[in-house]
Structure formats: C-alpha cells, structure tokens
Amino acid sequence: MSVLFAIILFSLLIFVHELGHFVAAKLSGVQVNEFSMFMGPALWSRQIGETLYSVRLIPIGGYCAMEGEDGGSDNPRSFDKAAWWKRLIILVAGAAVNFLVGVLLMVVIYLPVKQEIAPVISSFEPFCTINGPEGLQVGDRIVELDGEKIYVQSDFSMLLQLNPGEVHDLVVEREGKRVALPDFQMVKHTVTGEDGVTRQLYGMNFTIEELNLPGRLRYAWNQSLDTVRLVRLSLQMLVRGQAGLKDMSGPVGIVQQMSVVADSSPTKLDALLNLLYFGGFIAINLAVMNLLPIPALDGGRVVCLLITTAVEAVTRKKINPKYEGYLHSAGMIALLGLMALIMFKDIFVLFKG
Q1: N or C: where does the chain have the smaller number of CB atoms within 10 Å of the terminal CB?
Q2: Of 11, 5, 12, 8, nearest in space to 268 by CA
Q3: pTM, entire model
C-alpha cells in the first residue's frame, strides 16, 4: 500500500508542479511546445493546438517545454521574449502549486482534530525551579525560543533538542503583552514515572485547547509553516556539518520510511492519515527545495533572471543566454550525481537492514 501510495504521490507532485508552469505560461501568452508526464520514450501523445501532450515510459520527472526557454528563438511568444515579471511568475508557479497541495493535505489531515496541545503553560511540577514572578508563569504562551518562532507545542521540545544547554532566550505572551526572558535558566530533572521509565523533564505542563473550524485551519497552516522551517534547519545542519549524506534520503529511502510508518500504524485510517502527512510534508519540502538558488532548479533560474534583468537594464546590452544554459547544465549534472549517490546509499541501507 505504501509503495503504491508513494508512486501515486510522486506522480501527483510532478504533475501539479509542471501544471503550475504550464498554466502560468499559457496565461502569460508564452507558447508551450510540449507538456510531458515522466521522461523517456513516449507511451502516449496527442497534439492539441500548438502543444504536444504526452505520457512517457520512465516514471521520473516531467517537463513543460516552452518555446525559447533557453533563448535563441525569434518567436514573439517565446519565453525569453516575455516580460521579466511574467517569466518570474512562470518560474515560481510550479513550487507555488506544490506548496498549495502540501497545505491542502495538511488541512485534510487536521480537519478531524478536535484538540491541540498549545504552547501555553498550565502548571508546574513540584520539582520545577523555573517558575515565579521573574520566570515563567501559568498562562504564559511561549512564542519564541532562541530566536525561533513556536508554531506548535512540539516545536518547543524540538528546538530544545537542537539547542542543548541550560540557558535559552525565551519570549512569552503574558496578558496580551510580549515578555522577553533573555539568558533564561532551564534545568532538566531526572524523573521516574509510574511505568518505571526514567525521563529528563523540565517540569512544565501545557494546556489542551479545543479547536473549532478556524482553529483547525490555523493549526494546519502552522504545521505547514513549521515544515518550511524544518527544511531551513536541515539545510543549516548540512552547511554546519551537523548532518551529512547518511542523513539524507531520496525516493527509495522515503518509500522505506513510509512503509515503516504505515506498518506501525494501529489502524488503516491512521496509516492513511500518516501517509497523507508524509505527502504534505514532501510537497512542502519540494516547494522550498525547488526555490533554492541552485543552478538547474527554478530558484537558480529566478536568480539568473533577476541578475540578467538588472544588468541588461543598466548596460542596455542583452546577455547571451548560452552562458546561463551552461550554468544550468552543470547544475543538472551535479544534482543528478547527488541523487544517484543518495539512491545507492538508500538501496545499500535497505538491503543491509
């Protein structure tokens, strides 16, 4: 079930991404020569007007081939002849649709939710030493931790794990006002529960809040924003060396994780909701990653578009598009190499396990 779901999911995300480019190009008056699902030899194709619609053999990727996308076309309706702001909209449309799909999936997942654990302190355990007039108080809503916004309560524990130590910068909302608590001391205490399990706890308990329809929509939106932030934090960890190739996953690794989550779900409904969450998480991840300023990605094309537009406006000279083409070709080769490396790593881990 999870493998089939993953195939459908990736196919859907590819389709809607390219559909975003396609619709934006059509609305901008840019000629689209081909709109293809997947890559390789064509299994089915049909010419409708100026556009060839096709489904191809290899279930990877897809494309929306626009006239003059790489420059050098005399067609007045080519991509390179369109106004720069139209080209910008076309380039970001794919990622925008992926993000929208991710948010919609989050809404579907969280619409049935009737309660949430809010980042609002309801009480303190007797061993807790951080409450009091100068510290945290019952009713405080934690809104920031070490400069990062708290979207949902789980952010609090996640950010504390990423920033180990006993001193943190907190911002809380107290009686409608923001209160900053810089260099705030937070100490864990060893506690043995009734089940005999020993845990490290700060001693704060959080409030359970009832959710109406607007509250559920807000909760889904906050989960979406939290996912965007997780992408940024992951990239920061890669840059800082806190994470490496072993922590990265491609389609093979993602399918394996989805299988584990589905198999460990107590009911079929829970399995479906967990898989849908994976879908929303991946959709939002793809949207953010696709807009990174890396050659061959839409984000890299956006950066090149903005730079060339600014340079041409100042110099009144057109930059030869072949140089940008070389840059994106090199970027594509590097990305395909990285994807192959991650795929082989995932396959090795799969068979090793």
Answers
A1: C
A2: 5
A3: 0.88
